[in-house]
Amino acid sequence: KHMVYIALAALVDPGDEVIVPAPYWVSYYEMVRLFGGVPVVVNVSEEQGFQLTPEQLEHAITDKTKAIILNNPSNPTGAVYPKEALKAVADVCVKHDLYIISDEIYDKLVYDGVPFTSVAALSDEIKAHTILINGVSKTYAMTGWRIGYSLSPALVAKAMTNYLSHSTGAPGTMCQCAAIEALSGPQDEAEQMRQVFEQRRDLIVRRINAMPGVSCLKPSGAFYVMMNLEQILGKQIDGQIIGSGDDFAKLLLEKSLVAVVPGSGFGAPNFVRLSYAISTETSRPAWIVWKAS
């Protein structure tokens, strides 16, 4: 999170526009605003696999556009861009001399043999426009260690370094050593965890799509599912109308003591986000209660 924040601090001047495809991670929108930037939200539909098209990007660009934030694989949708689709978007950025802030924190959590492509690997020209963000929180389950990193062109890296030197201290030495071991050591346990996530994903997708009135796509990465509520919007539960994901999440919590995240925070008000980061054993009681309700 902090590296995305620092990248925006280095790049964004008041009035600059930053394109944010929606659904987006909740902090992107507010981070842009913190530096006086203008987040330009481009709605990316479920029908297009939650993937931005080059045509949509072209339409959103103005003479004030400075950058785009891409999250691949995506939180909250789990979408993973195929290489060709990613290059088409990146080529538009190069054409208009835009920076690509590429948040790739879930890059090792991809499923069904889907290949992951880092945007910086597409070409030297695209690499020169990319600020790549990653870390150890997701792949290695090291959220509490708070280690992230960025790779970017030298001038951008220097600006980010200057900002960091006057705003925060370094991560703990033990955290840095642990991150080095995670990245350079054996990857067997990380792969085992990825396989478990894939099994959980299959289970949660199957259960959602078996319930009337709701549905979801099968995500190709990360560990989230966006559940579509459009078929039940306008219906009532105990006299309360479900008008949005916020209403659904509130009712589900009140009636079934099951918590989901409303999609409004991600720019997708007709959805809720579910996570399969917790164990199947922990989530099973919630599914039983939910199905019964």
UniProtKB/TrEMBL annotation:
The keyword Transcription regulation does not apply. InterPro entries: Aminotransferase_I/II_large, AspAT/PAT-like, NHTrfase_class1_PyrdxlP-BS, PyrdxlP-dep_Trfase, PyrdxlP-dep_Trfase_major, PyrdxlP-dep_Trfase_small. Keywords: Aminotransferase, Pyridoxal phosphate, Transferase. CDD domains: AAT_like (cd00609). Its cofactor is pyridoxal 5'-phosphate. It holds the Pfam family Aminotran_1_2. One of its GO terms (molecular function) is pyridoxal phosphate binding. Residues 3-282 form the Aminotransferase class I/classII large domain. The keyword Oxidoreductase does not apply. One of its GO terms (biological process) is amino acid metabolic process. SUPFAM superfamilies: PLP-dependent transferases. Belongs to the class-I pyridoxal-phosphate-dependent aminotransferase family. This is Aspartate aminotransferase.
